[in-house]
Specification:
Helices cover 0% and strands 54% of the residues. With 226 residues, it is mostly beta strands. The strands form 6 sheets. It has a 4-stranded antiparallel sheet with strand order 1-22-21-20, with no helix packed on it.
Length: 226
């Protein structure tokens, strides 16, 4: 893995979702009473816009779909659809189980819930359309957190680890594992690696963690343009 750039990151952000679209870095943050939806300048890390979630909501993953953003919640069972320009709420949709990470592969939403299962959902209605079990070396891989859909594959943070895995959603198999432990900053308040944003048109990513002071622009070794 090669580090290409370091960008400042708000250390108060408990990062749960990260996605770069049309030159805007969208970030969803968690913790009850502190959850937000943000729009950042990816070159400086500056927060350009921020909307708070209700006090009892624990924000989780986000993904951009057209002119809207889906933001899921941990145990509230609610997905919030937002206007991408203003970040304001459009509507809320209920779902069963926990919400961890989410991404849009261009045809469907793919969502994680802490188990080894990835659930497929309709991008407009949010209804479940199928699922796949994720395995690495034949064993179920649980605690898949923030997700990023890139080129038909799913990239996922594995909670409580410094690993990012690449998953083939057709069969649930992990095809690559990347160790990002070298990026982890020191400090008493620094939490786990979480947040993967693909830089469109490149084989580079922005990655960060919960309460990290830095967003890293990285390239993974041995990764083609797929």
């Amino acid at each position: 893995m090669e580090v290409l750039q370091k960008i400042p990151h708000d250390t108060s952000a408990f990062t749960q979702g990260l996605e770069l679209v049309d030159g805007v870095l969208y970030e969803g943050t968690g913790l009850e009473g502190q959850s937000t939806m943000r729009a950042l300048d990816p070159s400086s890390g500056n927060v350009q816009k921020k909307v708070d979630l209700p006090q009892d909501f624990f924000g989780e993953g986000i993904t951009v779909v057209g002119d809207t953003i889906w933001q899921i919640t941990w145990r509230n069972g609610v997905a919030i659809e937002r206007d991408r320009r203003t970040l304001n709420e459009i509507r809320r949709v209920q779902y069963q189980g926990e919400g961890w990470g989410i991404c849009d592969d261009g045809k469907r939403l793919i969502m994680s819930d802490g188990s080894a299962k990835l659930t497929f959902r309709d991008p407009k209605s949010f209804t479940e359309t199928g699922s796949v079990q994720v395995t690495r070396d034949g064993k179920p891989l649980t605690q898949l957190n923030e997700l990023e859909c890139v080129g038909g594959k799913v990239w996922a943070n594995v909670w409580k680890t410094d690993e990012i895995v690449r998953i083939d959603p057709a069969n649930g198999q992990v095809t690559d594992t990347y160790d990002l432990s070298s990026l982890k900053p020191s400090g008493p308040d620094v939490d786990v690696l979480n947040g993967i944003a693909h830089i469109p048109g490149t084989n580079e990513f922005l990655v960060t963690g919960k309460n990290w002071p830095t967003i890293f622009r990285v390239r993974f070794n041995g990764m083609g343009q797929d």
